[in-house]
């Protein structure tokens, strides 16, 4: 039986993916953030940290929070 991923597991994997994109494909990362509709001022604040090791977990957290917000909205208005 497979275990359900925890919030922390998802955040860890997402942080790793964001780090990869930060270092190798910034354009793709920015496109993803736009499509997911992550709050732009918060994204700009994250990038202001100027250190990928700080930026990646912050961006991952913003992505996860936005996706959870959208899921809650769908559940509420279904």
Structure at a glance:
The chain has 78 residues and is mainly alpha-helical. It has helices at residues 7-24, 26-36, 40-47, 52-76.
Query: What quaternary form is this?
Result: single chain
Helix content: over 70%
Shape annotation: globular
**Unreliable residue stretches:** none
CA gyration radius, whole angstroms: 13 Å
Order of helices and strands: HHHH
Look at the helices and sheets and give the structural class: mainly alpha
Largest sheet: none
End-to-end Cα distance, whole Å, is 30 Å
Report the average pLDDT across residues.
95
Number of helices: 4
Query: How many β-strands, per DSSP?
Result: 0
How does this structure look, described?
This protein is mainly alpha-helical. The N and C termini lie far apart (30 Å). The radius of gyration is 13 Å and the shape is globular. 13% of the residues are buried. The protein contains four helices and no strands. Helix 1 (7-24) crosses helix 2 (26-36), helix 1 (7-24) crosses helix 4 (52-76) and helix 3 (40-47) runs antiparallel to helix 4. The chain has a domain at 26-76.
Question: What labels would you give this structure?
Answer:
78 residues; mainly alpha; 79% helix; globular
Task: Present the secondary structure layout.
Blueprint lengths: L6 H18 L1 H11 L3 H8 L4 H25 L2
Helix pairs in contact: 1-2, 1-4, 3-4
């Amino acid at each position: 039986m497979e275990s359900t991923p925890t919030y922390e597991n998802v955040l860890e994997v997402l942080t790793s993916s964001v780090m990869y994109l930060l270092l190798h494909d910034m354009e793709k990362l920015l496109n993803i953030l736009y499509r997911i509709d992550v709050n732009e001022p918060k994204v700009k604040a994250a990038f202001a940290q100027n250190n990928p090791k700080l930026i990646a977990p912050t961006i991952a957290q913003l992505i996860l929070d936005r996706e959870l917000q959208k899921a809650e909205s769908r559940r509420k208005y279904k």
